[in-house]
Design a protein that fits this description.
By secondary structure, this protein is an alpha/beta fold. The protein has one domain: 3-Layer(aba) Sandwich (Rossmann fold), CATH 3.40.50.2020. Helix content is about 40%, strand content about 25%. The protein is built from seven helices and eight strands; from the N terminus they run H-E-E-H-H-E-H-E-E-E-H-E-H-E-H. The strands form two sheets. Strands 5-4-3-6-7-8 form a six-stranded mixed beta sheet, sandwiched between helices. It has a two-stranded antiparallel sheet with strand order 1-2. Helix 6 (about 155-160) links the parallel strand 7 (about 140-150) and strand 8 (about 165-170). Helix 1 (about 5-15) packs antiparallel against helix 3 (about 45-60) and helix 3 packs across helix 4 (about 75-85). It is globular. It starts with a helix and ends in an 8-residue tail after the last helix.
Amino acid sequence: MSDSKDELIRMFFDEEAILFGRFILTSGKESNYYINVKKLSTKPRALKLIAKLMAGEAQKRGITFDRVAGPELGAVPIATALALETEKPLVIVRKKPKGHGTGSQLEGEVKAGDKVLLVEDVTTTGGSVLRAAEVLEREGAEIAAIMVVVDREEGAEETIGAKYTFLPLVRVSELFARRKEPQKE
């Protein structure tokens, strides 16, 4: 494991970005833990590290892309940081077309044939990021890969991987393998 990835995993614990309790996820599933990547993505040091890791992973895998995209809301700061890191244009994918102005579901430009690196904060089943991929493809984009900060390992890799290259920076099993035990007082 790289030092940078190890640092990211430590940040999840240091910033208390893993919560335990009862949570309903975007997928509709119930979970006894919640991975709050948004908490990390509001911290400049963590956000910069995520962008650096994503850019490095794309380069290591030989993934070329013209644009970086992310679905609202959780992926927007991540996609923005990665766009800055790679100096590639940013595209934001809305959950639904806006009801005013142009009525577009995309903010930013996508041209037919553009290769897009689509990023997400957390995946469970992969449904949200797959819907974003469909929106981009309707506009003529090609999905170069889908990269996620944390994969919860609940089906997203199989679902997304059936059609796209799927690259999680961290799997939830890696987070839990490093989970700090409560200190005895």
